[in-house]
Write a structure and sequence with these properties.
The structure holds two protein chains of two kinds. Chain A is an alpha+beta fold. Helix content of chain A is 21%, strand content 30%. Chain A has two helices and five strands. By secondary structure, chain B is α/β, with parallel strands linked by helices. Chain B folds into two domains: 3-96, no CATH class; 101-252, 3-Layer(aba) Sandwich (Rossmann fold). The radius of gyration of chain B is 21 Å and the shape is elongated. The chains are: A alpha+beta, B alpha/beta.
Chain lengths: 105, 268
């Protein structure tokens, strides 16, 4: 999250709403460990990354849903080992879980 | 100051801080800011007992430089029996701290086992030996760094990195190598210095250290030698557990006796 701080400050100062997605858990092979984070502004601007590019697109969609109130903040899972997993998988075959919430704290 | 404001300022300054966030169960999104020193901005996961237990665990995660998910009862319960009767609160603890380091001198049989256990505990592991054919990344794939070097220059170059969370283990029995390694380690603030060898080897080593001008009792008292807790370890793997258990007990200041035979709270 360290690398996101400047952008988060900038958005907050401008009154732009932002969603924050953080990797909380990685099973098997995953490109980024717990703590990897990306932020998505309500205008769809994106900073940071949570994988090697495998799931970022889907994370943007989910982040915007959280900001729009269409989805509760919570854990989303990417990978093939979980029935509820999103269709988007990691090329490395691992599973990652992210916590997505509005950055309003 | 807001939670994020205080978090950002500590992260920017490189000061240790942990953030616990409820990611599933009652109170999703609740946050607790945890710092090893001072009082952070008021924050809570919604229950004082849960806060207390999570703060304790977060400080341990922070000390090890780890981030990860843990499960609790709504009042901080952690045992399987207690968790059977409560909603489960899933908490993500994110730590901002450099991982502690373990420097292992001597690329011997015990080194690989010790490096493996050290990785489990969250150490950044450096293996160092002057002999090129032994100190190779192929022999120690679990190490973060393998150096072919004499101890002196390594300590001169990077000894200042070592602090109370960091560990030096000297596993060679070769005086050519372990005397400069002990000298180098004693010049750092490393929290634990383990030196392998029998009681007789250590007695001889003390004589050679004295010849090398290392005879301050306060210095020599820092040396854990023979190394490890007395659990009857024989194999490299068992020895690694014995050493790492001693490292943990040195950090926590506990006596390392069976809990059955001690009294008082287990987690202090």
């Amino acid at each position: 999250m360290r690398e996101l701080l400047d952008d988060l400050d900038r958005w907050r100062a401008a009154g732009v709403r932002v969603a924050l997605a953080r990797v909380v858990d990685v099973e098997g092979s995953g490109p980024r460990g717990p703590g990897a984070a990306m932020a998505v502004s309500e205008h769809g601007e994106v900073v940071g990354s949570v994988s090697g590019g495998c799931v970022e697109g889907a994370v943007v969609t989910e982040s915007l849903s959280v900001l729009a109130g269409d989805r509760e903040p919570g854990v989303i899972t990417f990978g093939y080992s979980d029935d509820e997993a999103f269709a988007v998988g990691l090329t490395c075959g691992g599973t990652i879980r992210l916590f997505v919430e509005e950055y309003d704290w | 100051m807001s939670i994020s404001g205080e978090l950002a300022s500590r992260v920017r300054d490189g000061v240790p801080v942990a953030l616990a966030t409820v990611i599933a169960g009652p109170g999703v999104g609740a946050k607790l800011l945890v710092v090893p020193d001072g009082d952070p901005a008021p924050s809570s996961l919604g229950d004082p007992d849960l806060d207390r237990v999570v703060r304790r665990d977060a400080l341990a995660e922070l000390e090890a430089g780890r981030s990860g998910v843990r499960h609790y009862g709504t009042s901080g319960q952690t045992t399987p029996e207690d968790l059977a009767d409560t909603d489960i609160v899933t908490v993500f603890v994110e730590s901002w701290a450099p991982p502690p380091q373990m420097w292992i001198f001597g690329a011997v049989d015990f080194t690989a086992a010790l490096a493996r256990v050290a990785k489990i505990l969250g150490f950044r592991v450096l293996v160092c030996d002057a002999r090129e054919i032994f100190a190779t990344g192929r022999r120690f794939p679990m190490a973060d760094e393998v150096r072919v070097a004499w101890p002196g220059p390594v300590f001169a170059e990077r000894g200042a990195e070592l602090g109370s969370r960091d560990v030096v283990c000297i596993l060679t029995h070769d005086p050519k190598f372990d005397i400069p390694a002990v000298k180098g380690a004693l010049a750092t603030s490393a929290g634990y210095i383990g030196v392998m060898g029998s009681r007789r080897t250590h007695a001889h080593r003390l004589e050679r250290l004295a010849e090398a001008g290392v005879d301050d009792p306060a210095d020599l008292a820092r040396l854990m030698s023979p190394v490890g807790l007395d659990i009857g370890a024989r194999t490299p793997e068992e020895t690694a557990i014995s050493i790492c258990a001693e490292i943990i007990s040195a950090r926590t200041g506990r006596e390392a006796r069976p809990l059955r035979d001690t009294e008082g709270p287990i987690h202090r």
